[in-house]
Amino acid sequence: MWRALIAIYISTGSVDCVDRSKFRTFEQGSFGRRYRKYINKVEGDAGLVVHKLDPSTIKSSGNKVQASLLFANDASVKPLLLELSFFLNDVDGSCGIVRAFVTEKDPLHPRFRLTPGDVVRKDEDLQPDQVAVTEGAGFTEIASTRGACKVKLQHSPFQLEFVAHGRVLQKLNSRRFLNFERYRAKGAQAHAGLVDATDLDPNNLFEESFGGHTDSKPRGPAAVGVDVAFEDAVDVFGLAEHAVGLGLGENRLPEPYRFFNLDVFEYALDVPMALYGAIPLVTAIHREKSGETVASGFFFPNPSEGFVHVDASKGSPQTETWWLFESGVMDMFFFAGPGPQEVLQRYHTVTGFPRMPPISTLGKHQSRWNYVDVEDSIGVNRKFDQHDIPYDVLWLDIEHTDSKKYFTWHPSHFAQPDKLLAALEASKRKLVTIIDPHIKKDSGYDVYNKMKNHDFFTKTKDKQLYDGWCWPGTSSYPDFCNPEARRLWTTFFKMDYYPHNRPDLYTWNDMNEPSVFNGPEVTMPRDNLHKCSEKDYEVEHRDVHNVYGFYHHMATVEGQLVRAPNVRPFVLTRSFFAGSHKHGAIWTGDNMAKWEHLAISVPMLVSLCLCGASFVGADVPGFFFDPEPELFRRPTTEREKPWADGPTGSDSPGGTSWGSGTPSIEGMPTSSR
């Protein structure tokens, strides 16, 4: 059946309703343009060395090795720090996890690094390997003492080889694309030689504009990039979330895959533009000379805007990639395993394993934007039974609230939610309510007042309260990067705070990229400020953009656990990052009720699963447009998904199978069970 769906997608071509002019391309960002010039410069000079490892600085202790990376063309520039850590797989205690961390020493501004334990588990929670260091002529080998895993460091030019199963699986910086833009003062003296991409293109280092918005960039350039080659790779998968085919090397896209979580409705197909989530993980299948295969993974959890280029040219013995991020540090993981399953075991060892969901959430979900009132919702529930169509969970969108103020109910249309909850309970069904991150700016709204009084909202570059425009109108955005703000958020889920609450009232987190209707690229300015774990608002939004939704999701799950510690939480999120699988479910966003979108949902969901997010689903038959009746008669596509949502937008005729006409429900009950 999947082949038939993919055939439909290929034969009908791409459906493109999104206004792509609102969203930046690779060449429209200065750090992308610089890196392209840097790549061209390095490729055009085979003898050019930019980075070299100083073997005299190598130090090892336990499972860690440190060394300095020197800038070959300017000895006055402080070296970079390279740290390698070896860990064991939690599942069977085997080797096959290597972490490579690169940052600048004594930076002018702190380089943002994710708080240990959030996306990636703390080092002390992982099983350390033991390593042995061996020096050679022009290289150093660091080998696991627990298995056949090792790293070979070439000194000049610097290169890292990841070795397992008796062979080289990955090469880092084999093409010399390593680029680390150090923080510098505006007007600082130019480097004596080529140190980073800013030496080739000094334009827009401290300010740039797009779509009528200006990014002040007060700290200047900070991009990091590197190439990674997968040796003898016959297939590469991952890099969720993009609306493309499953095999990354087969897509032949004109631009690199973009990671920058955005509110992209009616999204285009077969293009590398960013969508709602980002999991910067690639799994490769390597062909052995014997014909057998092994697998490896590369994981780069940087939450700033990123781009990944994949080149799997026919006839080439390897798949070439390069990775570029706007800011932060280089924190990279190499995984090795006999197959993709073992690679994911190692990935979950590093990021954490998913929690068990409530069993009721594994079925059919019914949603519409929006049900009119309590009676309308009860009527929909009743008609599912009348038509003998099974479903498990009913969802309420933004109109159920009082003026888009979350944790409230509409005073007239949903004045009696207990009546709806009782009807659902009688039919053994559950209810989900939407709770988005934008908070209506209203002095009579308690959630707004509490967040403001605690100084827990995101700030502008001038450290003033940031206001954006979303569903409620003028809104403020909680600083979910701040753990104290997340703790306050959890209190809003308590039984005595959220009216008509109950232990199994579940939650939907939408618009959490975050979506800002009047912001650049429909999101938050990059020079906005967060507190995170700092003492003051010192972290730029550009550093943490792709984990805003991750932290919103985390805080909401923790809120449900505060409400009912012994009840399994369920929170669906639209925006996500690596590690979001620990918190709950993900769906593929605002698709269209068209065959092409139904077809592409299959590789999109499989890609998410191959990136460690297995509790995923899609809107079936789609969110926008009036679907053909035949689309409603394809519930077999739902049956193969971990969960399936049946939503529609406000332009659709009812959001139910009978809403598209009687013919659409013929034969449906049997096939949907």
Automatic annotation (TrEMBL):
InterPro entries in the record: Gal_mutarotase_sf_dom, GH, Glyco_hydro_31_N_dom, Glyco_hydro_31_TIM
CDD domains tied to this protein: GH31_N (cd14752)
Pfam family, one: Glyco_hydro_31_2nd
Biased composition (Basic and acidic residues): 631-643
Keyword Transferase: no
Subcellular location: Endoplasmic reticulum
GO molecular function, one term: alpha-glucosidase activity
Region named Disordered: 631-673
Highest taxon above the source species: Eukaryota
Compositional bias segments (type: Low complexity): 645-664
Pathway terms, separated by semicolons: Glycan metabolism; N-glycan metabolism
Keywords: Endoplasmic reticulum, Glycoprotein, Glycosidase, Hydrolase, Signal
Limits of the Glycoside hydrolase family 31 TIM barrel domain: 354-634
Annotated ranges, domain Glycoside hydrolase family 31 N-terminal: 97-307
Entry's Gene Ontology BP terms: carbohydrate metabolic process; N-glycan processing
Keyword hit for Hydrolase: yes
Recorded GO CC terms: endoplasmic reticulum
Family: Belongs to the glycosyl hydrolase 31 family.
UniProt protein name: Glucosidase II subunit alpha
Species annotation: Symbiodinium necroappetens
Lineage: Eukaryota, Sar, Alveolata, Dinophyceae, Suessiales
